[in-house]
Write a structure and sequence with these properties.
mainly alpha, Rossmann fold, binds adenosine-5'-diphosphate, binds tryptophan
Length: 321
């Protein structure tokens, strides 16, 4: 069983990305034959700054490895290291109705936000379908927002297989992460880089802890009991603390006698300690760029071998070979 997922290289990762996407992907390692790639071609639909693109791709590679991805248990590569994906995207485009792309929310949302539409942004789902189909993927773990792109992918497989034979492409299935709770941001809304309410995974100590100390709370006095429902501090603390520590904080909320400043300090410590091993692994990787290159190159070689096999099969089926 092949599991594949793509990571957007979109700048600094926050703890919502970690608990919502990175940790589940790393936890799923070993469950099947895992393919993970950095979607750098996709990033070009919205950025045309070469230095920023390079830096973001490098950053995601380092962060993903630092968070615990084990190269021995999966294939990790840059999307653009397998340019064959563009040929498959083209072949898929020839059977992709305009209406299918016009209905895609993610395209409509981006245009509504004022991002000027280019052809690549419109065709984004066809390239994403090619990412998936080029490796005969069976399972694709993604967030809820990507569900429609998986439906487009499945539609395209149906069309290709109807036209060119049942075994031309493998039908993939989405695995939508409904079990991961939304991580709240520092203002209580969903944590998102677009809301400016994020806590970074790998920020500097003082500014990151300061962000926590600025979380808005009610005006309960130190000695008062405090409401546990909808507490941002508790929701975040639960991600980092042991069960016992979390229960202790609940008790302290209910009994009164501890102020919000104290709770925030405990949260800041727990957050900082949680990522400590990953932080030191990240330092190692930053100081040893060859290690990162080696992982990505080895991944690209494996991925490309697999891609060539599938593309040869498709080329024959459609009459290009
Ligand atoms: P952002 O909302 O900051 O732009 P992205 O859309 O780039 O984040 O999300 C990348 C991945 O991280 C997606 O799989 C998404 O589901 C996950 N993710 C982002 N924010 C959260 C959150 N607050 N809670 C849980 N998962 C999240
Ligand atoms: N579009 C995905 C996102 O924004 C990233 C992505 C690109 C992807 N190609 C993919 C995810 C293929 C899964 C499979 O998060």
């Amino acid at each position: 069983m092949r599991i594949l997922t793509g990571l957007q290289p979109s700048g600094k990762l926050h703890i919502g990305n970690y608990f919502g996407a990175i940790k589940p992907a790393i936890d799923a390692q070993g469950e099947g034959d895992g393919y993970y790639f950095i979607a750098d071609y996709h990033a070009m639909t919205t950025t045309h700054d070469p230095a920023a693109l390079r830096e973001n791709v490098r950053g995601v590679a380092i962060d993903f490895l630092a968070c615990g991805f084990a190269p021995s248990k999966g294939v990790f590569f840059k999307q653009s290291a397998v340019p064959e994906v563009n040929e498959l995207a083209w072949i898929l485009s020839t059977v992709c109705p305009m209406g299918l792309l016009e209905r895609c929310h993610s395209y409509k949302d981006k245009v509504a936000k004022g991002i000027s539409a280019n052809h690549a942004l419109f065709a984004y789902p066809a390239l994403m379908a090619a990412d998936i189909l080029l490796y005969d993927s069976n399972i694709v773990p993604v967030g809820e927002d990507q569900k429609q792109h998986l439906e487009v992918t499945r539609d395209l497989v149906g069309k290709i297989n109807d036209l060119y034979g049942e075994n031309t492409l493998v039908m993939p299935e989405a695995r939508i992460r409904t079990d991961v709770a939304k991580v709240p941001g520092l203002d209580g809304e969903k944590m998102s880089k677009s809301y400016n309410n994020t806590l970074p995974i790998f920020g500097d100590e003082k500014p990151s802890k300061k962000l926590i100390m600025r979380i808005q709370t009610d005006s309960a006095a130190v000695e008062d009991p405090k409401p546990t429902e909808n507490s941002i501090i508790l929701a975040l603390y639960q991600l980092f603390a042991s069960g016992e520590e979390y229960q202790q904080m609940i008790t302290d909320y209910q009994n009164g006698g501890c102020g919000y400043g104290d709770f925030k300090k405990r949260l800041a410590e727990a957050y900082w300690d949680y990522f400590a091993p990953m932080r030191s692994r990240r330092e190692e990787l930053i100081n040893n760029p060859d290690e990162v290159d080696q992982v990505l190159n080895a991944g690209a070689n494996k991925a490309r071998k697999e891609a060539t096999k599938v593309l040869d099969r498709v080329r024959k089926a459609v009459g290009l070979a």
